Amino acid sequence: MDWLKKITSERTGDFYYTGKHSSGLTVTVYPKEKNNSTYAIFGTKYGSIDNCFKTAQESEPHRVPAGIAHYLEHKMFESEDGDAFKRFAKTGASANAYTSFDMTCYLFSCTENVYESLKILLDFVQSPYFTEQTVQKEQGIIGQEIKMYDDDPQWRVLFNLLDALYQKHPVRTDIAGTVETIAKITPDLLYQCYHTFYNLNNMVLCIAGNVQPDRVAEMCDEMLKPAQPVQIDRIFEQEPDHIVKARVEQKLSVAVPLFELGFKEKVSSKRPSVKEIAETEILLEAISSNASPLFRRLLDAGLINEASFGNEYFEGPGYASVIFSGESKDPEQVAQEIKREIENVRKNGFDRRIFECAKKAVYGRNIASLNHVGSIANSLVSLAFSGRELFQYIDAVAQTDLNSVMARLENQLHSEFSSLSVIFPNQ
Amino acid sequence: MTGIEQRAVCSGVNFRSIRDDRFKTIRMSVHFLWPLAKETVSENSILPFLLSRASRKYPDFSKLNAHLAELYGAVLDANVQKLGDIQVLSVSASGIADRYSLNGESVSAELAKLLCSIIFDPPLENGLFPVQGFEQEKRQLIEMVDSEFNDKRMYAKLKCEELMCAKEPYGIGRCGTRQQIQELKREDLTQVWENLIHRAKAEIMVLGDCDPEPVYQDFYAAFQNLARTDSVDCPNQSVPSAASAAETTEKMDVVQSKLVMGFRTACAEPDAGVPAMKLFNALFGGTPSSKLFLNVREKLSLCYYCSSQFNPMKGILLVQSGVETKNIDRAKQEILNQLEEVQKGSFDENELAAAKLSLCNSYRTLSDSLDGLEAWYLSQTFRPKVKRPEEEAELVNAVTREQVIEAARKLTLDTVYRLEGSGVEA
Asked: Residue B319 in contact with residue B260, Cβ under 8 Å?
């Protein structure tokens, strides 16, 4: 197992092992010996945005229906000899999967039979089995899932916003697709996507918890089917800098209006570094945390509440936006106040103390996130796909200075690239 | 294995601590317990929020939060929940363990002092809570109650419980009604606060990587000052069975309909049959290998979710599902069919073993998070003897096939709630 290299964080005393297995799979093992539970994720860098692609060997790109990555995730649980949930039922592991914009993850959490559960995970994700009949059957279940999201105001307010921010990028399309697009999915299309994106060179395995790296390595030797390296071209139309519209509304069965205010950014082919991500996190904390002057003004004016107001750096391949969200009786007013505060900070900078507090708060939250094996494993997967490293990120937070945060602000949070999405009550 | 230490602070007040350096954080919380009643539910529910926004030393909301940010993003949190017929009013503080502070500050000592001061020494003005904070929290509490309507899955579940337990305290919403909150008066709240700290039962928990001793001392001194003599009685009732099932349908402008079925189980804490009922629930609808998941969702493809939860304090079991309006009756019939299957003993050893493994897995996983530990030990408050999650896992493992069948046969359908949508997008 000399292909697994130890990475240590001096700051936290934590460490993990990582490396590329001979099969092409990137493997990361984060031991937590005192833990009862172990959390494992087998993920592929393939999500809802990958609807147009080709491999180096192919001349013409494939265009596939929206929602196919998510559909594939559902169908992976079935194989010729039964359902993966049934196999996990024998080990006691709690299994699940999710599809996001840029990845699909299969996971389990367990407190015993770790290696048996790992074997099942590695096996079922490498064993596609789709027939006309099984593909057909899933349309009912996923159709109901889509309808559940149609009623979900949190979900709708986000996708309405993305649709208003992005003109071309597929991030604007619902992850599960629509009842119409999923009707076009066939076993052949599923196999085509599977064989392109479920190549081990495009995948990672991340395990955190009560596990031994050498036994994980042995299991990899036994279970992984070597794959030819694959080079996938994901084809996105050029996304213009400007937004589609500054305002979008929908009425739903809600009691209080919900809003999301997004600021679209220019992106390059290179994803932001750990340093840039740390700067943004601290910037957002300083502008709008519940210790901030902005938060206080909004609260005192009765415009937001503590339970719902928040922010997020929404960032992935070809897209990046800062999003503020919450419930408000007057979302338009909230949006104006946020924009005014941003311009105020841009002009006058931060008080040093506000900056130091924000930095400490972001640092503390990141330390706290190392408690939980699920959050560690999930972070490791998304960091691996974005070319970032966990401990470097925590160090970057601790080392960020005020000047670099102000410099970062120059490229972020510009009002002319912002949209406000609101869900109003329908009665 | 994590050890829990327990001691009494004074009449009706317990202190529990688990010290464990596998955690990088600490969490300390105080839970006040009061019998749920229409008259007191709303005035009680605003208190934890009111208390956690200011202290005498930090009377200003922004300054208090700046102080918390300086303590590496420590969090003061308030919560209201129901534990059977009891209202639980909680205030908690969490933050990183002292060994991770960048400049050698003791986060734990400061959080213990802060938690004590917000609970026992609020910044009263002329004996009253400050008007601005009161109005602020009143508005936020109303918005919190309103937003429960936004999530239809949650809304449907709460609605079914409310209908089912209309004659029990549990049928009252955790914060009461919007109207009741609207009518709260600032002048009444000092007395409500006095009542709670003097007469409520209280559970103090200190969990994670910190020495509980100084925290105990802080709280010991604070409660000694109050010279408590007695604490309020917290009864909990459970209705064993239903004579007939009441059906309620509500129409709403939503795409997907919801079906919630409430059963009585004739089995509630501290009944010895609780582990068998928990196992039955896992086998029936608690996991992705359960009867409901495999049949109602996977085989018939009727819904995206169909699952069951058992509430051991109340002895009620709810089945929840999201379905198309035209399929509600089919789903309901299939859920009842699956119950009958278990009652007839139509399940094999594999299904039973899977349910045991899955439940035991979730009990053992609890001990890996401070939130999980806190919720578990809070649920043990009214047991004659506190069990560790690992002990509960052993009891579940010892349940026999016959006991599961027996548990299933105790179920009677009490309430069916349907939230019927139009099925079309707005």
From this structure: yes
Q: Tens digits of per-residue pLDDT, A6-61? A: 999 999 999 999 999 999 999 999 999 999 999 999 999 999 999 999 998 899 99
Nearest to B367 among A32, A36, A307 (CB): A36
Interval A377-407: pLDDT, tens = 999 999 999 999 999 999 999 999 999 999 9
Q: pTM (2 decimals)?
A: 0.94
Confidence of residue B2 (pLDDT cuts 50, 70, 90): low
- Tell me whether residue B426 is in a domain: no
- Dump pLDDT digits (tens) for B310-337: 999 999 999 999 998 999 999 999 999 9
**Co-location of B81 and B33 in the same domain:** yes
Give contacts of B 337-396 with A, CB under 8 A. Answer: 350-351, 353-354, 356-358, 360-362, 364-365, 367-370
Instruction: For domain A247-425, give its CATH number from 3.30.830.10, 3.40.350.10, 3.90.226.10, 3.40.50.150.
Output: 3.30.830.10
- CATH classification of the domain holding B299: 3.30.830.10
Total number of domains in chain B? 2
By residue range, what is the domain housing residue B205? 5-226
Could you tell me if B27 and B107 lie in one domain? yes
Mean pLDDT of A109-137: 95
Interface contact flag, A89 B65, Cβ < 8 Å: no
Q: Does domain A5-234 have CATH number 3.90.1150.10?
A: no
If pLDDT is split at 50, 70 and 90, which confidence band does A77 have? very high
